[in-house]
Design a protein that fits this description.
The complex is a heterodimer of chains A (about 280) and B (about 290).
Chain A lengths: L1 H18 L11 H8 L3 H14 L4 H14 L18 H17 L3 H14 L3 H17 L9 H9 L20 H25 L5 E2 L2 H12 L3 H18 L3 E4 L2 E5 L3 H8 L2
Helix pairs in contact in A: 2-3, 3-4, 5-6, 6-7, 7-8, 9-10, 10-11
Chain B lengths: L7 H17 L4 H8 L3 H14 L3 H18 L2 H14 L4 H14 L3 H14 L3 H17 L3 H11 L4 H12 L5 H7 L5 H5 L3 H23 L3 H42 L3 E4 L9 E4 L1
Antiparallel strand pairs in B: 1-2
Helix pairs in contact in B: 2-3, 3-4, 4-5, 4-6, 5-6, 6-7, 6-8, 7-8, 8-9, 8-14, 9-10, 10-14, 11-14, 13-14
The chains are: A mainly alpha (about 280), B mainly alpha (about 290).
Chain lengths: ~280, ~290
C-alpha cells in the first residue's frame, strides 16, 4: 500500500516537474553568446562565454567566441584576432559567425578583396538562416561601397539579390558600415580642436579634477562633435560652452551617477535636425 | 500527520523532488530581480537566455518580447527592434503586443512617421477600450511630433474625447508660431541675436561678450603687429563666431521642440502601460491613466 502511495506521489512530483519550465539549456549552449557576438556586445558576450565555460569547461565553441571577445575588448592585444581554423571541434556555424567578424576586420584594414571572399565563403557554406541574412547584408554593403568587387550574375550576387528584402532587419546590426568616403579636409581642420581637447584631457583635466556637472562634459561633447562631424564640431562645441550655464540652470534631464546628480545634454539633441536632412 | 520511520526515505525523495520542482517553477526570477533593480540590460539578457531555453514558440516569443521591453527601457532601440522581429518570428500570435512596443520604440527613437504607422496598427488591432485610449494618446503624440496637429486632434477625439488637457494643448500648439531656424542662423551672424530671436537672452549676452572680447583682441594684436597672438585669437574667435551662427539655428530648433514636447506631455498625461512580470512568458499588459 505504501509502495503504491509512494509511486503515486512520485508520479505527481514528476508531473509537476515536467509541467515546470525546464531550467536546463535545451538550446545550443552558445546561442546567446553567438547572438551577442553578432551584435558586437563584447562585454556581455565575454561574460556569457565565461558562464558557459564554467559549466562546460573546454567547450571549443565558447573558447573561440571568448577569444574573439577578448581580442575586441583589448585584453588579448598580442593576438588581435583568433585564428578560426584552430578551433578544432567547434560548431562550424559558430566558426563561420566568427569569420564574419574577421571579415569586418579585414575590411577595416583595407583588405577588401579578402573581406568579400570571406563573406562569400560564409554565404556559400552556412545553413543558418540568421547568419546567411547577416552575411548577405554585409556583402551588399561591401558591394555598395566598392562596386568593382561585385561579380554580377554570379551565384552569390543572385543569392544576395534574392535575400535583399529580408536583410532590412540586419541593416543596423550587420557590423561596421563601410566608410562612405571620408571628408578628409573636414577631418584635417578638426585636428587643432582635437589636439586642444587631447591636451586638456591629458594634462589640464586631471589636475583640475572632475567638476563638470554636465553629461557629457564640455570637453567630451566637443571631442564627440569633432569626431562625428569633423570641422563642423567647432560651432557645436562653442555653442555648448555658451549654453552651459543655461543648461545647468534649467536641468531638464538629469541622471544620478554614484550619488552625484548630472545634467544630461547629449550631442544628439543638438545635431539631429541637420543630420536628419 | 505522523510518518512512520520506514517511510522516511520515500518522504525525503518526494520532498527533494517537490523542492526541485518549486525552484524550477520560477525560472525568470533572476530576470525579474534585475528588472526590479532597474538593471534593464541584465534583465533583457536573462529573458533572452530564457527564450533560447524555452522549447515552445509561444514561450520563446513572450520572453523575447520581455527582452525587447527591457532594451527599450535601457534606451537600446535598435536591439529592441531586433528582438521584436525575433519574437514575431518565434510566435506570430504576439504581433499585436509587438506593435505596442514597436510604437513605443519608434516614438522614443524620434522616428515619428514609423511611430504613427505602428500606433495606428495597434489601435486598429485591439478592441479593449483602455488599450485604444492609450494608443490614441500615443498616436496623437506621434502626429504632433511629426507636425500633423489636425490629425492628432482627430485621433484624440476618436478614442479619448475626455482628454481635454491634450486637446487644449493641441489647440495652443496650433495657435502659436514656430521660430524659423534659417532666420535664427542668419540673425546669428550678429553675435547673440540668433539666441535672442528664440528668447534665450542669457546665451545672447554671453555670445555677444565673448565675440566682442575676441574681436577686440584681434584688433588690438593686429594694431601691435603681434601676428602670432593674432592667429591664435582669430582661431578662437572663428570658433565663437561659428558657434553664434549655429547656436541661432539650434536655439530656434530647441524652441520649436520645446513647444511640441510640452504639447506631447499634456496629451500623454499620466498614462503608462505596465506588464505583469509574474505571468511571463504570457504577455499581459495593463494600462493606467
Amino acid at each position: 500500500m505504501c509502495f503504491v502511495r509512494a509511486i503515486a506521489w512520485s508520479a505527481i512530483a514528476l508531473a509537476s516537474l515536467s509541467t515546470a519550465p525546464s531550467a536546463m539549456p535545451a538550446a545550443p549552449p552558445c546561442g546567446l553568446a553567438v547572438d551577442l557576438m553578432a551584435e558586437q556586445d563584447w562585454t556581455n558576450c565575454l561574460r556569457e562565454c565565461r558562464r558557459i565555460l564554467a559549466v562546460l569547461p573546454g567547450n571549443p565553441s565558447a573558447l573561440l567566441i571568448k577569444n574573439m571577445a577578448e581580442s575586441r575588448l583589448g585584453s588579448r592585444a598580442a593576438h588581435p584576432s583568433p585564428p578560426p581554423d584552430s578551433a578544432a571541434g567547434a560548431d562550424q556555424e559558430i566558426v563561420r559567425a566568427v569569420q564574419l567578424q574577421l571579415a569586418f576586420d579585414e575590411w577595416a584594414r583595407g583588405r577588401r578583396e579578402n573581406a568579400c571572399r570571406l563573406v562569400e565563403n560564409i554565404l556559400a557554406a552556412t545553413d543558418d538562416l540568421d547568419l546567411c541574412l547577416r552575411a548577405a547584408c554585409t556583402l551588399s554593403l561591401f558591394w555598395e561601397n566598392s562596386p568593382s568587387m561585385q561579380k554580377s550574375g554570379s551565384e552569390t550576387a543572385l543569392l544576395v539579390a534574392a535575400l535583399a528584402p529580408l536583410q532590412l532587419r540586419y541593416a543596423t546590426a550587420a557590423g561596421p558600415r563601410p566608410d562612405r568616403g571620408a571628408a578628409w579636409l573636414s577631418r584635417l581642420l578638426s585636428l587643432p580642436g582635437l589636439s586642444i581637447i587631447a591636451l586638456y584631457h591629458g594634462q589640464i583635466g586631471p589636475a583640475l579634477g572632475s567638476r563638470c556637472r554636465l553629461k557629457p562634459s564640455c570637453s567630451e561633447y566637443a571631442r564627440q562633435a569633432f569626431l562625428r562631424h569633423g570641422a563642423m564640431g567647432a560651432p557645436l562645441a562653442a555653442d555648448r560652452l555658451i549654453r552651459e550655464p543655461d543648461v545647468l540652470g534649467a536641468a531638464r534631464k538629469t541622471v544620478t551617477i554614484r550619488r552625484t546628480k548630472y545634467v544630461l545634454d547629449p550631442l544628439c539633441d543638438h545635431d539631429y535636425w541637420w543630420r536628419r536632412r | 500527520m505522523k510518518i512512520h520511520s520506514r517511510h522516511w526515505p520515500t518522504a525525503a525523495v518526494m520532498f527533494a523532488m517537490f523542492m526541485l520542482a518549486a525552484t524550477r517553477a520560477n525560472p525568470d526570477a533572476i530576470a525579474s530581480a534585475a528588472a526590479a533593480e532597474g538593471d534593464h540590460k541584465a534583465a533583457a539578457l536573462e529573458y533572452r537566455r530564457l527564450a533560447l531555453e524555452a522549447g515552445e514558440p509561444a514561450r520563446q516569443g513572450g520572453y523575447l518580447w520581455a527582452a525587447a521591453l527591457h532594451y527599450l527601457r535601457d534606451g537600446d532601440y535598435d536591439r529592441a527592434c531586433l528582438l521584436l522581429d525575433k519574437a514575431e518570428d518565434a510566435d506570430a500570435g504576439i504581433s499585436a503586443t509587438a506593435l505596442l512596443l514597436r510604437g513605443e520604440t519608434a516614438l522614443a527613437d524620434g522616428k515619428t512617421d514609423e511611430a504613427v504607422f505602428y500606433w495606428k496598427g495597434y489601435r486598429d488591432s485591439t478592441r479593449a477600450p483602455a488599450a485604444r485610449r492609450y494608443a490614441s494618446r500615443r498616436l496623437a503624440e506621434a502626429l504632433v511630433a511629426s507636425g500633423k496637429t489636425d490629425e492628432a486632434r482627430v485621433a484624440l477625439r476618436g478614442d479619448d474625447p475626455e482628454n481635454t488637457g491634450g486637446l487644449t494643448a493641441i489647440e495652443q500648439l496650433k495657435r502659436g508660431r514656430d521660430k524659423n531656424p534659417t532666420v535664427g542662423g542668419l540673425l546669428g551672424l550678429i553675435p547673440g541675436l540668433g539666441y535672442a530671436y528664440s528668447g534665450e537672452y542669457g546665451n545672447a549676452l554671453r555670445s555677444l561678450i565673448l565675440n566682442g572680447l575676441f574681436i577686440f583682441g584681434m584688433a588690438s594684436t593686429a594694431d601691435d603687429e603681434q601676428w602670432g597672438a593674432f592667429a591664435v585669437i582669430t582661431f578662437f574667435e572663428l570658433t565663437w563666431y561659428s558657434g553664434s551662427v549655429y547656436g541661432g539655428a539650434d536655439a530656434a530648433q530647441r524652441y520649436n521642440q520645446e513647444r511640441r514636447d510640452n504639447c506631447r506631455e499634456a496629451i500623454r498625461g499620466k498614462s503608462v502601460f505596465e506588464i505583469d512580470a509574474a505571468s511571463l512568458p504570457v504577455v499581459s499588459v495593463q494600462f493606467k491613466f
